[in-house]
Amino acid sequence: MGADCRHDGQREPHDANVVFRFHEEIPPSIKIITPCTRGYYFGIMDTMETSRQLSVHAIISYSQKESSYRILRDRILSAGLLEKQPRYYWLTGTLIIGMLGLGFYFLITLRNPLLQCLNLLLLAFATMQGGLWGHDLAHHQIFKSPRWYTFIGIVWWNMLMGVSFGYWNYKHNRHHAHPNTISKDGDIEFSVLWFSPLLARGANALQKKIIPYQQYYFLPLLIFPYMVQIKNSVFYLAGQRTKTAVVESAFFLMHHFAIGYVFLHFIPFPQSLYFLIAY
Fold first, then answer.
1. 95-103, long-range: CB within 8 Å, 24+ apart, which pairs?
2. pLDDT tens digits, residue range 182-228?
3. Contacts of 193 (CB under 8 A, 6+ apart)
4. DSSP tag of 187
5. Using CA atoms, how far apart are residues 190 and 182, in angstroms rounded to an integer?
6. How far is residue 253's CA from residue 232's CA, in Å, rounded to a whole number?
7. CA 1 centroid distance within chain
8. 114 φ, ψ (degrees, to nearest 5)
């Protein structure tokens, strides 16, 4: 009654969460959790061989899970943890904008390389916080009135972060609709990373040679997703025929033209090199 982890055609894993497999012979209301070992594709089995079953299988009914979820949800709601906090977000949003402005000011004025490196850390922190703030904004977790979200979202994402709000929402909604599902979750679509053996089997000869080393080049690759999002934003906006897309495009271009103008007119070398690293 154990979960088979082999690639035998009908048991092909289509989900990046295949480290925990569903047993196919029992009712869908019961989960059998069986670990597979010997290497990983970022948490996914490498050899796909069946490991020894646990002596006691973890069997969890969906009715029990649902009951536990309701109890937890009620406790969270009663504690007020899901209530909107506009004051908190106005404060943190203002701080993020202030840090970004201060970082760009230092980028233009500082001449000391060591201080400039510290400034890059400030810009990196502010940019990351800006993305997290925009994430909560896209999830409608900030304002009580829904009419604010589109306007603030376009200003925040397109003008401040340089990424299309519509594109980011589209990609992130795909992620939540199909989390970690191959070909459906936009957050795991990378041309040089393989998150499951199913994907790896479709790799060409050169790609198959670098697959065993992807855990080593994964971290350096993290400098590229922002550039990919900019490229995808351009294609997304170019394919839209709505008034919202026109407004998005205006703010998107405003951001990148402003960045280019500052780079060309105000930042001498070697500060320009720091600028490119930060951007």
1. 96/126, 96/129, 96/130, 96/133, 97/160, 99/123, 99/125, 99/126, 99/129, 100/126, 100/127, 100/130, 100/160, 103/278
2. 778 878 878 788 887 877 888 888 888 898 899 898 888 888 888 88
3. 42, 214, 218, 221
4. G
5. 11
6. 14
7. 36
8. -65, -45
Q: What CA–CA distance (Å, rounded) separates 244 from 251?
A: 11
Burial of 187 (0-12, 13-18, 19+ CB in 10 A): middle
Distance between CA atoms of residues 63 and 10, nearest Å: 28
Q: Which amino acid is at 69?
A: Y
Partners of 31 in the β-ladder:
60
Alpha helices in 35-85 (DSSP H): 62-78
Helix (H, G, I), strand (E, B) or coil at 130: helix
Instruction: Give the count of beta carbons closer than 10 Å to the beta carbon of residue 32.
Output: 20
Spatial separation of the C-alpha atoms in residues 169 and 166, rounded to whole Å: 5
What's the pTM value of the predicted model, to 2 decimals? Answer: 0.71
Provide the 3-class DSSP secondary structure of residue 162. coil
Q: What is the Rg, in whole angstroms, of the alpha carbon atoms belonging to the chain?
A: 23
- Residue 18, φ and ψ in degrees, nearest 5: -70, 0
Quick: pLDDT tens for 1-47: 434 343 334 444 444 444 333 333 333 333 333 333 333 333 333 33
**CA-CA distance, 108 to 258, in Å (whole number)?**
14
Residue appearing with tokens 């394919």: 239
Q: Residue 150: which of 251, 244, 229 has the closest Cα? A: 244
Angle between helices 271-278 and 86-109 (to 10 degrees): 150
From residue 177, how far is each of 166, 170, 174 by CA, in Å?
16, 11, 5
Residue 205 belongs to what H/E stretch?
helix 205-210
